[in-house]
Design brief:
Radius of gyration: 26 Å
Bound molecules: 2-acetamido-2-deoxy-beta-D-glucopyranose
Structural class: alpha/beta
Strand order of the largest sheet: 12-17-16-15-13-14
Number of helices: 20
Number of strands: 29
Distance between the termini: 30 Å
Length: 869
């Protein structure tokens, strides 16, 4: 039965079993694609959303550019599909070809090469009931049956819908939420609401720690729990779709929205995305994986083309989105920017070919706010336009394009079906609460019902705040604090903001107190905000410590004088960034530099000159250059606290006093100099030009570059200290015995050097992602206090694979009492040890020996081994 079905699938798969894929490559591996992008005047009802780009062009600009896509491959005619990118003209304008060559892929439910559910590894999973979280996940949830059931219901549901009704399911309207799908027939409509860290534009919600802080925990259980609680809060408010998580890569250290995301490594980012999605959807809300993709800086985000080679795209930028889809994500949001001179929401390769074919995504793709540039985007994979309205290219335009058969009815059916499918998939047809707030008028008594959804979520906020804090320096064990006699807090970042927790709309202003989130649409309002000052005072009462403070950042003499003779001086500094529609202190979203704000470096130096126990606490959206003071002999400790949400002060206090033994690890590299980073922020460009951002560093982002170029960072990716110490020993690696899977042929093919086939869902197939190798080792707590360690696994590919020296492919977390030893496990899949083969357009194991290391950071390797053949 299984093998019979496999056979029929194999017929669809051109490249199974090591056939001569190279012979099918056309002679011209270099082809010319002409992209004409027309950004016509569209302010796209910008008023409905902060995510609208205020930089969107207001005049009609037309840019024609020619790019050479040297590694875009045409495959032979034996594959009827996935082919001929070379010959298909760009669809970037509405005056493009009249007959749109629609995808030949059916995009019907989940026809991956994975055939039958296999409960221990591949259980059929309902998104409301995901498998339990594990520090070493070995289960690949199979959402296929749930998608198929939902799709069948959706098809029946819209069967009698008119063209207009179907179109209305794809076109946003004004409403109470930041995005709204109107009611159509028996469909009640949908509320889409920001943000990735909590419910925006309403009250009585939790301000969760930011994405970057969550990634810094390297703790899947906390990632999942945060997702779950966020999902419950969105549902509690009646929002159907949460516009998060955000998973753009921390490629450019100044990138304004990096703090919303999960750092500078695709594996860490992917795992954080996966757990966040599983959690959010278990909470009932539809999650949105955004911004797909290559939106790595704010400057000119609607007028820049990120030019990325195929391998880098697959191995770095797609990975988090793939993991979100493997978590069952309902929706994907395409980004503002262009990719290879074609807008991301109009990009057949990234939307249809990569997201819907390779990854097998079954939900719907929505545009970022105002990011739709053409009606014909519908033909290349865009399903929903947001915020919609009359000038949105969908609506009436889409009706016309379908009526005159420029866009097929089948495609419109697919678009409408996908929207309704995600709704059934998430069981939102079953007593989902109505919208109880009004994002556009949060003070209107008629439409805001002030439902309190906070529950006891503050507990996990505080825990993630502590677990996401990274201890970088601790000379002579000055931390944790032990009932100091006197203690002084210096710097405004220790204090509550002077005019309340929500000083600025969307947090878009110069922080006057603790920085607990960045600015922009990726925010929510604080119901309350605990500063370090409040948390430390409360603790001081217990310890009977004398507390002093000076929150003035600008009077350096006073700061120096105030710390003389104190047992401990704690200096708080921060650095903020956000979304480009707000400029703060000259920072147009992206940071203009990597130094602490409010002359923080000078403040630290002024304090350290007068106090030999100066502890620095940072609340930063990303890396800072800390060379001016990090080696100062009086700077005894550095606590990297990032963005803790409304319990930020309590979490910092927990670290300082050892209520939580630090276990966080850096999700990016802290360099000694800004020029050490491989990818600069690209500024400049003119009003009308598309700015080119060439991802020339390829796979070498962040630590991968530092390793390859032999640049010593200040603190490397994955680094973080504890109040105890850990020893690693006794490493083993074994192949996980393959059960009797129908995909044995695919596994054999891969083991013999073959690439994964070209097929729908090929990148997310079970055989590729099920456990293949298990690495185990002992971890012992060799210190004197209870604590957690994050063992990390890095692969070292053979030189011929042209990978960076070390790439993260696994991590786990383990908590141990003093003297205790436990066996830790990190499981690898075939995907984890594969590289993307641009010629064969599949995942393959590189030839040669693949080594690996296990250790405590990307440069602190303790054990090593070799992946078995
Ligand atoms: C395909 O490429 C591989 C590796 O470059 C080579 O060993 C093999 O002979 C090639 N096959 C054909 C049919 O050209
Ligand atoms: C962008 O162009 C590069 C270089 O030609 C190519 O490798 C890559 O596949 C292209 N990506 C997309 C999404 O078109
Ligand atoms: C579709 O939406 C438009 C614009 O909101 C509205 O005027 C129209 O009545 C809707 N049509 C149907 C059939 O729902
Ligand atoms: C479609 O049919 C269903 C029942 O068959 C009915 O309840 C619904 O109102 C119809 N919808 C429209 C838009 O006609
Ligand atoms: C959120 O805070 C901003 C800035 O203080 C304020 O304008 C807005 O009304 C607040 N929103 C809610 C729902 O309280
Ligand atoms: C879009 O991508 C799909 C999937 O790879 C492909 O079948 C189709 O031919 C492409 N269409 C266009 C217009 O390029
Ligand atoms: C179909 O309608 C659209 C929108 O009115 C128009 O731009 C396009 O030229 C029409 N195509 C044909 C083949 O009539
Ligand atoms: C860096 O930017 C911050 C925030 O705008 C500013 O306060 C600081 O003075 C800048 N630092 C340098 C060295 O220019
Ligand atoms: C360190 O602090 C002491 C005061 O405790 C001060 O005398 C000394 O000069 C400081 N050292 C430096 C290098 O600033
Ligand atoms: C700071 O200096 C005092 C004496 O001036 C000394 O007792 C104390 O141990 C020093 N602290 C550190 C952390 O070096
Ligand atoms: C990016 O690459 C294109 C094509 O090679 C080139 O024209 C452009 O100048 C490059 N942009 C930058 C900022 O280097």
């Amino acid at each position: 039965m299984r093998s019979h079905r496999l056979l029929s699938l194999l017929l669809l798969l051109p490249f199974v079993a090591g056939n001569s894929a190279n012979s099918s490559v056309t002679g011209t591996t270099s082809s010319i694609v002409t992209a004409t992008s027309s950004a016509s005047s569209t302010s796209a009802s910008a008023s409905t959303s902060g995510t609208s780009s205020s930089t969107a062009s207001t005049s009609t600009t037309s840019t024609t550019s020619t790019i050479t896509s040297s590694s875009v491959i045409s495959v032979s005619s034996s594959t009827s599909s996935g082919s001929a990118f070379t010959s298909i003209p760009s669809l970037a304008t509405e005056t493009g070809p009249l007959t749109v060559p629609l995808s030949e892929y059916s995009f019907t439910p989940w026809p991956t090469p994975s055939l039958a559910p296999d409960p221990p590894v591949y259980p059929a999973t309902d998104p409301l009931y995901p498998p339990p979280v594990s520090a070493d996940p070995q289960i690949v949830p199979d959402f296929g049956p749930a998608w198929a059931a939902a799709r069948a219901k959706a098809q029946a549901f819209i069967a009698n819908f008119t063209v207009w009704e179907k179109v209305n399911l794809t076109t946003g309207v004004n409403g109470r939420c930041v995005g709204n799908i109107p009611p159509v027939g028996d469909f009640p409509g949908l509320c889409l609401e920001d943000s990735p860290l909590g419910v925006r534009e309403t009250d009585f919600v939790t301000a969760f720690p930011a994405g970057i802080t969550t990634a810094s925990t390297w703790n899947r259980a906390l990632m999942r729990l945060r997702g779950l609680y966020m999902g419950q809060e969105f549902k509690g408010k009646g929002a159907n779709i949460a516009l998060g998580p955000m998973m753009n890569m921390g490629r450019v250290p100044q990138g304004g929205r990096n703090w919303e995301g999960f750092g500078a490594d695709p594996f860490l980012s992917g795992e954080t995305a996966h757990e966040t999605v599983l959690g959010m959807q278990a909470g009932g809300v539809q999650a949105t994986a955004k911004h797909y993709m290559n939106n790595e800086q704010e400057w000119k985000r609607t007028m820049e083309s990120s030019n990325v080679d195929d391998r880098t795209e697959h191995e770095i930028y797609v990975q988090p989105f793939m993991r979100a889809v493997m978590g069952g994500v309902s929706s994907v949001m395409c980004s503002y920017n262009l990719i290879n001179d074609t807008y991301a929401c109009n990009n057949n390769k990234t939307l249809n070919d990569m997201m819907k074919r390779e990854i097998g995504f079954q939900g719907f793709i929505q545009s970022d706010w105002g990011a739709t540039m053409a009606t014909l985007s519908a033909a290349v994979g865009l399903d929903v336009t947001m915020p919609g309205g009359t000038d949105s290219y969908f609506g009436e335009d889409l009706v016309e394009f379908v009526t005159n058969n420029t866009i097929s009815m089948e495609r419109l059916d697919d678009m409408a079906t996908r929207v309704v499918t995600s709704w059934f998939f998430m069981h939102q047809d079953e007593n989902y609460p109505p919208v109880s707030f009004n994002a556009n008028d949060p003070l209107d008594p008629a439409t805001n019902f002030h439902i309190n959804v906070q529950s006891d979520h503050y507990k996990v906020v505080r825990e993630i705040g502590a677990a996401g804090t990274v201890l970088l320096k601790n000379e002579g064990g000055v931390l944790p604090l032990d009932k100091p006699r006197t203690l002084v807090l210096v710097g405004s970042d220790a204090a509550p903001p002077t005019s309340g927790p929500n000083e600025y709309v969307d947090q878009g202003g110069d922080p006057s107190g603790i920085l607990a989130m960045g600015w922009g649409s990726g925010t929510d309002n604080f119901t309350y905000l605990i500063s370090p000052y409040e948390a430390i005072q409360a603790r001081a009462r217990e310890d009977q410590t004398s507390v002093f403070w000076n929150f003035n950042d600008w009077d350096l003499d006073a700061a120096g004088n105030d710390v003389i003779g104190m047992d401990v001086a704690i200096v708080f500094v921060n650095s903020d960034s956000g979304e480009g529609y707000i400029t703060v202190d000259g920072n147009a979203g992206d940071r203009q530099n990597l130094t602490a704000w409010h002359q923080g470096d000078d403040l630290i130096l002024a304090v350290a000159a007068q106090n030999n126990n100066t502890i620095v606490v940072t609340n930063s959206v990303g890396p800072l250059i800390i060379e001016p003071w990090v080696e100062h002999p009086n700077v005894t400790a550095v606590v990297w606290a990032s963005l803790g949400g409304n319990e930020a002060g309590n979490a910092i206090m927990d670290i300082l006093y050892g209520n939580w033994n630090p276990s966080g690890k850096l999700p990016y590299t802290i360099a000694k100099d800004i020029t050490d980073y491989p990818a600069p922020l690209i500024l400049g460009g003119t009003e009308a030009d598309i700015l080119s951002i060439n991802y020339t560093e390829g796979l070498m982002i962040d630590y991968r570059w530092f390793d390859a170029m032999n640049i010593t960072p200040r603190y490397e990716f994955g680094f973080g200290l504890s109040y105890t110490t850990f020893e690693f020993s006794d490493l083993t690696i074994s192949k996980v015995a393959s059960l009797d899977y129908a995909e044995t042929d695919l596994i054999n093919n891969w083991e013999n050097g073959g690439a994964s086939p070209i097929a729908e869902g090929s990148s997310t197939a079970l055989w590729l992602h099920m456990p293949a190798y298990q690495v185990t080792f002992n971890v012992k707590n060799t210190g004197s206090v209870y604590g957690g360690e994050i063992p990390q696994l890095y692969l070292h590919h053979p030189a011929s694979a042209m990978e960076p020296p070390s790439i993260l492919k696994g991590f786990t977390n383990i908590e141990l009492s003093p003297g205790e030893t436990q066996r830790a496990s990190i499981t690898l899949s075939r995907y984890d040890v594969s590289i993307w083969d641009v010629v064969r357009q599949g995942w393959a194991r590189p030839e040669g020996t693949i080594d690996f290391s296990v250790g405590a950071s990307s440069r602190d390797f303790r054990l090593s081994g070799t992946i078995p053949q």
